[in-house]
Amino acid sequence: MSAATTPGPRFLPRKYINPRFEEDLAFSHVSGPAEYADKTTRPVRYVAVADDGGTVTTYVWACDEDDAAGWIVRADAGTAARNDSRWMTRLRHAKAAGLAPLAALTALLREPSVLSGSLTTAPSLEALYDLADQPYRRSVWRSSRAALLGLAIGDVMGRPLSALPLDRITAVYGPWQSMELPLSPDGRVRVSDQTQLALAVGEALAEVAVRAPLPEAAAREALTERGALPAPPWLTPGAVTTALRTHLIHWHRSPENDRSPGRTTLESSAALAAPVPWQQATATGSKGCAAVVRAATVGVAPYLTPDQRSGIAQLQAALTHAHPTALAAT
């Protein structure tokens, strides 16, 4: 079939959307027992709860500034600790009695299962979840899926628009809010190389950025003394570089790499396969936007410190697009 007769993208009609979906939702608490807030962005005071064998199973925490309190069961705790509802009961009774969260926590020190001398401070609720080897409210996993799905949908919708100037997009397709999801000639929705590369970066980080559980005592000491758990000892610049490089090469060689990727990414990824330093393989003068799209997966990867996140975002860009503007953008 000649280029002149190649069909363009078809579009999947949207179902009717109730206009009320665009209204702001207002939630009102109408019934149920009074409770402390279950989250805070401030430091929290907490105590450790142990089972009959002296093994820590749960952390109960409080923060007066946000009227917040709750409990976190360690990932390695048994079924009994997971089904233990006494902390919910104690905190609800304390709230009903008008106690401030820290006063309620202090009252728990009389509980025989609360370790003596365990009352201390965590720099954040997220750090306390990390101490329990639990994802913070599980939201990091939901956020990761949502971010990548949103990236993919935006990629699909933007793909047929990429060759048009900004003033022509609305003229041809109308407002983006009412644009249908474009279908390929074979009836499928297809992402571009941008989503493929973002997933390649995510797969690389999945290999090196997962922290092995620390012994509870060592983890608590690290959190108390340094304010954060130590980074995985294998999360080094060399290890991250090798993982990123490997997955970029894998993408370059994949039979699914048929989405018209940019010349710079193709050439740099091909050069990375040679036994040369990555600094010799990259395009030092390129500011390409592909590096910025890939950074989305770095933003949602768990267990990274802000410095690690910033460094890895710039490193994954530098492997193919090493202009200072590309690094600053990522």
What can you tell me about this protein's structure?
It is a single chain. This protein has 330 residues and is α+β, with helices and mostly antiparallel strands. Among the domains are: 44-134, no CATH class; 192-329, no CATH class. The protein is built from 14 helices and six strands. A four-stranded antiparallel β-sheet has the order 4-3-2-5, with helices on both faces. α7 runs parallel beside α12, α9 (237-253) packs across α10 (263-272) and α12 runs antiparallel to α13. The longest helix is centred in the middle third of the chain and has 20 residues, at 139-158. The mean pLDDT is 84.
Please outline the helices and strands.
Layout lengths: L9 E3 L31 E7 L5 E8 L4 E6 L5 H4 L3 H11 L4 H7 L12 E3 L2 H7 L7 H20 L7 H8 L7 E3 L9 H16 L7 H11 L10 H17 L9 H10 L5 H4 L8 H11 L5 H13 L5 H6 L1
Antiparallel strand pairs: 1-6, 2-3, 2-5, 3-4
